[in-house]
Amino acid sequence: MTDWLQHLLILTILLPLAVGAALIPVDERNRMLKGVFGFGSTLIVFVVAMILMRIAANAGNQPGTGIYQLGNWPAPFGIVLVLDRLSALMLCLTAGLALAAQVYSMARWHTAGHHFHSLFQLLIAGLNGAFLTGDLFNLFVFFEMMLAASYGLLLHGSGPMRVKAGLHYIAINLAASSLFLIGVSLIYGVTGTLNMADLATKLATLTPDNRQLVEAGAAILGIAFLVKAGMWPLSFWLPPAYAAATPPVAAVFAILTKVGVYIIVRLHFLVFGAAAGASAGFGQDWLVAGGMLTIAFGAIGVLASQAMGRLAGYSVLVSSGTLLAAIGLGHAGMLAGALFYLVSSTLTISAFFLLIELVDRGRDAGADVLAVTMEAYGDFDEDEEEEEVGVAIPGTMAVLGLCFCLCAVLLSGLPPLSGFVAKFAILRGLFDMPGTDLATAMSAADWTYVVLLILSGLAAMIAMNRIGIRTFWASIEGTVPRVFVIEITPVVVLLAACIFLSLQAGPAMRYMQATADDLLNPLFQSERILSAPRAGGQ
Amino acid sequence: MELILSAGIGALTASGVYLLLRPRTYQVIIGLSLLSYAVNLFIFGMGRLRVNAPPVLNPAGAGELASYTDPVPQALVLTAIVISFAMTALFLVVLLASRGFTGTDHVDGREQRHD
Q1: Cα–Cα distance, A521 to A274 (Å, whole number)
Q2: Which residues of B touch A237 (CB under 8 A)?
Q3: What's the gap in Å between the CA of B16 and the closest CA on chain A?
């Protein structure tokens, strides 16, 4: 990697941060201008993320590649940003979702309140930082940055429902942040390091009583991320908050739960991986049990939901639960499938959140209420050119119905789309144990997971069918909703990404497999981070 | 000193968690503040307690680790204070908005039958 390519890593954080800050003093009447700048910034981040993904895929294993030392201080002392296949993948996914949500918001939702695009940029900066950082305390800082922006975005558009959901969301996340700090400082107090790679090498050398303290710290830290990921007893805030958020915000929130999952993956394999001595695999059983209960709770919630917003919220829980349990079960073959599932389910749920509002618009008085809310709390001077952007396309219901069908197939994991490929890859990894008898090699937990994974798909299918029939077939007084082209395009693009993922499942799975192999080889990873040379050849 | 500090952290945490579970938004925000004070003290304590020792430079005992306190927790505490302060301010705004919308300071936006 040449010198200027090295700096691309920090660009994914600095650019959204700078653009977000620069947009704050711009007058709210220039909303389209703000939107264009915000979109441009995200587009650049997306392109950079693609380049980084290519770099990570081609040269990710060479020592020193993708390690960015801030202030040119070497790893255990200075702050490092670490690029590997997993973080590059998450960067791409974030930027892709953000692009779709931003385009969608420019039809009307960004007029519902102030500073929408600034908050959006800050959210992206926080997310990118959380994916790239190599030490625990900066993880906290980026995590808080992301959360602060998400509070603002959740409240965007205001109204009693959003404020109520926001109040719960903020209170829970603030309490979780306190737990985060307790965990981090406990780990620092015992090991004297905050760098994750350094931590991985130090864990094996601890005395038993110190090891217990670190494990207690890690458990407290884990609770903070599990709140974010929405593991069962910690997830009651999630469906109301996601259902109350405006559609573009809910769409990008689909990746916020994945931040929790991502960090659990990181800590689980890097810090408590094979190199951790007696601490290896710490907390696995809890992840498995919690993940499975989350799938069960989410599936019941999906079946019980009347409104589509809540259905999507519970689908987020099913997706988190599937991932957490897959991580906890810890079979080497499953991890690649789980990563594939992460990408596929995030794209699907995001598209679904965007689609819901378009469908709901034609269904009942909800659209009118929203319009009233917009007039009461939005900006008074609507831009003229916004009116010209939208064209009422004929056959709207056909397009919406088709998108809805694709969402249903993807959510429930039916062939031939990526939802099926992902679940199939997870199950294949689970069953794939060469040389042993399947009946003895698989534990009760493994079988329960198989059953839950398939049943959760069935639950999603039933719920989506019921709502689909009510909306598209049997709607009595439903009017055809007015849908702007720039509103339906992001939905189509996100679903097209899922279809592309299904068509290119081979190369995608190879990438995921390489990512999984990296994760399962933590000592090599920490060696790579700690031995990275300083710039200037020292 | 260790005893006083740990007792202080314990009392702050216990009061914070108790208030966090109360039904009024004002109690919740005070609970969160107390909890963040407890956390800040806890981070401070994790750097080991030393009396009259500077964190970074000490001309008298330069080069001797024994004459310093750990500077990292102090930097962490500073960041944590700033962030938790900002978050409390933001939460306060949301709390006032909620009060304005619902006319009550109950966390669910409506009164229960008996509190």
Answers
A1: 8
A2: none
A3: 10
Residue to substitute from B83, B85, B98, B99, interface A, most A β-carbons within 10 A: B83
Question: Which of A73, A139, A141, A182 should one mutate to test binding to chain B, selecting the residue with the greatest count of B CBs within 10 A?
Answer: A182
The complex's ipTM?
0.90
Any idea what DSSP says for residue A307? S
Task: Measure the CA–CA gap between B6 and B40, rounded to whole angstroms.
Answer: 12
Is the CB of B9 inside 8 Å of chain A's CB atoms?
no
| pTM reported for the whole predicted model | 0.87
Per-residue pLDDT reduced to its tens digit, A350-367: 999 999 888 877 655 444
Tell me the chain A residues in contact with residue B86 when contact means C-beta distances shorter than 8 Å. Answer: 148
Measuring CA to CA, which residue among A390, A392, A400, A389 is closest to residue A363?
A400
Q: Give the distance from residue A92's alpha carbon to the nearest chain B alpha carbon, in angstroms.
A: 28
Task: Give the contacts of A431 (CB within 8 A, at least 6 positions apart).
Answer: A438, A442
The residue in chain A having the minimum alpha-carbon distance to the alpha carbon of residue B24 is A167
**Nearest CA-CA distance, residue B40 and chain A, Å:** 8
Q: What is the pLDDT of residues A326-350, one digit of tens each?
A: 888 877 788 889 999 999 999 999 9
Q: CB A163 to CB B98 under 8 A?
A: yes
Question: What pLDDT band is residue A95 in, cutting at 50, 70 and 90?
Answer: very high
Give how far Cα A375 sits from Cα of A28, A106, A290, A511, B8, Å: 16, 17, 43, 48, 50
| Rounded Cα gap, residues A270 and A52, in angstroms | 21
Alpha carbon distances (Å) from A450 to A346, A409, A427, B35, B60? 21, 19, 7, 41, 66
Cβ pairs bridging A and B (under 8 Å): 88
Angle between helices A444-468 and A418-431 (to 10 degrees): 170
pLDDT at A162: 86
